[in-house]
Amino acid sequence: MSRHKAREISFKYIYQLEFGQPLEVEEDEFWNMAYEEDTELTNIDKLFIEGIVNGVKEHLEEIDSVIFSKIAKRSKERVFRVDLAILRIAVYELLYVKDLSYKVVVNEAVEIAKKYGKDNSHSFINGILREVIKEKVEE
Questions:
Q1: Are 62 and 98 in contact (CB under 8 A)?
Q2: Among 18, 30, 87, 115, which one is most buried in terms of CB atoms within 10 A?
Q3: Domain assignment of residue 57, given as a range
Q4: Which comes out higher in pLDDT, residue 28 or 61?
């Protein structure tokens, strides 16, 4: 399985947060959903997906704080839920995963946004992530 596909599976799981679904879903239920996406899911893929999901869970407040500090005059309720889920994963990777290039993170987020988001989602996400990167580089 590609990392892109693993990020898509992670995105779908994180997306559930916005509908009141707890992230503490039964593990079997989550992996059943993942296997529906790709029957070639390996243990390495599972570890990658778990890393993203658990990382977003663990750092959710900080991640949302970063995201919403970059969104002028928008409340959480006004941000498209798909975009928020994509941003949460990308910001987690930018801030907490050390072995990824910024380009890869942004490209992956933009591609997922093109597939699942609205017409302008990919531009919105690209802009927010560029601001996060700019601030991180200035630190």
A1: no
A2: 87
A3: 3-138
A4: 61
Using CA atoms, how far apart are residues 64 and 67, in angstroms rounded to an integer?
5
Q: How far is CA 47 from CA 6, 15, 102, in A?
A: 10, 19, 21
Number of domains into which the chain is organized: 1
Six-digit token string for 54: 């658990």
> In which region does residue 20 sit, left (phi positive, over 0), alpha (psi from -120 to 50) or beta (all else)?
left
For 39-93, the pLDDT digits (tens) are 677 888 888 888 998 999 899 999 999 999 998 766 666 788 999 999 999 999 9
- Count the neighbouring beta carbons within 10 Å of the beta carbon of residue 113: 24
Can you give the CATH number for the domain in which 65 is found?
Answer: 1.10.940.10
Determine what percent of the chain is predicted with pLDDT higher than 90: 50
Q: Look-up: residue for tokens 């409340």?
A: 75
